[in-house]
């Protein structure tokens, strides 16, 4: 029989790898909570038109990457990103009526039917955040600064922060005209896809990874040249606030990003090393002031970002192995005497339960294995203490506590051992 395998581009995260995920997710939740963000959880499945309308019909994500299907009478799509669903929830629950500014964060799986390679998968995980109700630019700078702090929390410090502004709808319309005027005479030099997109969505040519397009866009007009009035003031404000916060960044006028909903502030954080195949973009974000109204809500400005978990993990290179438990309880009964062996195992189970209730991560080895085998298991679990419960100890109402690192051993009254170990290990879990 053929073995059944995971779907191509979708990965298992096994328990042996989970510590790094927990570390990054926890650091993220902590950092965002410090800045007044609360977690939102939206469904993995949404109505297909949600993404078509917000991300834009002529984008890679909508044209090529969505897992869309018809189920009974519904057109559904596995979410390719988190912003559209968050904005939908914000409008659906009329959150704008109850709070002037909402700060949300999320983490979870996203789905895109891309060609799988290292750092690029079909089910991948993002951490992200949205701020609704604040037009910026102060909060734009604050969001970028919060993100940089989070990266530093997880040891990702060798990064490049790129910012740009796409202006509002008018600036964008003017820029599209300038782009069409620039590319039309060299239409033949563009990739087939860009030729097609020249009339529908010329901005996408700037985002294309095709070598032909990269060559053809040499000398193309840049958006920052057509910014004026409030758009220009917004962009200057962003830069001034980033300077005030001491964030090191670079203005990259060629930064456009792959989704249609962005306006004004746009940013990206790149890692120092290219993660094979996937480039080195760790995180992307920007302002999407039109989306809430587009989804039937009032005119509410918004900004957000998303960072790829897998790429963050590759960049942060989790170091120390985390212990699975701190204490191993070994039951060493007398095999020749089933009644006392049962009593010894029972005492070990009860001690394990008491330690857990006191907040100590504990494993109880009830296999009836030799001391040598039990020590091997304790090592594999990363435990630093082993407690031995045997016939004699049970009779004397004591246990043997072995410090596995110091290779010392002491006899401790059963009534004191839980408090003693709780003082050392309590709260080590999570
Ligand atoms: P790229 O240019 O690498 O395709 P993108 O512009 O499509 O990225 P966004 O939609 O802005 O990316 O998503 C934000 C982040 O999510 C990316 O910077 C990346 O870290 C991560 N990401 C996006 N697509 C994938 C994927 N298929 N697999 C793993 N991570 C991804
Ligand atoms: Mg992409």
Fold and architecture overview:
By secondary structure, the chain is an alpha+beta fold. The chain folds into 2 domains: 18-167 and 227-316, 2-Layer Sandwich (BirA Bifunctional Protein, domain 2), CATH 3.30.930; 327-422, Rossmann fold. Helices cover 39% and strands 22% of the residues. The chain is built from 16 helices and 16 strands. The strands form 3 sheets. An 8-stranded mixed β-sheet has the order 1-5-6-11-10-9-7-8, sandwiched between helices. Strands 13-12-14-15-16 form a 5-stranded mixed β-sheet, sandwiched between helices. The chain has a 3-stranded antiparallel β-sheet with strand order 2-4-3. A hairpin with a 4-residue loop joins strand 15 and strand 16. Helix 1 (18-34) runs antiparallel to helix 5 and helix 5 packs parallel to helix 10 (229-245). 38% of the residues are buried. The protein binds adenosine-5'-triphosphate and magnesium ion. Adenosine-5'-triphosphate binds at residues 81, 112, 114, 119-121, 124, 126, 257-258, 278-279, 281-284, 306-308, 310-311.
- Distinct ligands: adenosine-5'-triphosphate, magnesium ion
CATH topology value of the largest domain: BirA Bifunctional Protein, domain 2
Say which CATH homologous superfamily of the largest domain is assigned: Bira Bifunctional Protein, Domain 2
Flag low-confidence runs: none
Count, helices: 16
How many beta-strand elements?
Answer: 16
* Overall pLDDT level: 93
Helical fraction: 25-40%
Percentage beta strand: 15-25%
- Quaternary state of this entry equals single chain
How far apart lie the N and C ends? 41 Å
Q: Main β-sheet, in a few words?
A: 8 strands, mixed
Structural category is: alpha+beta
User: Per the principal axes of the C-alpha atoms, what is the gross shape?
Assistant: elongated
CATH class wording of the largest domain: Alpha Beta
| Total domain count | 2
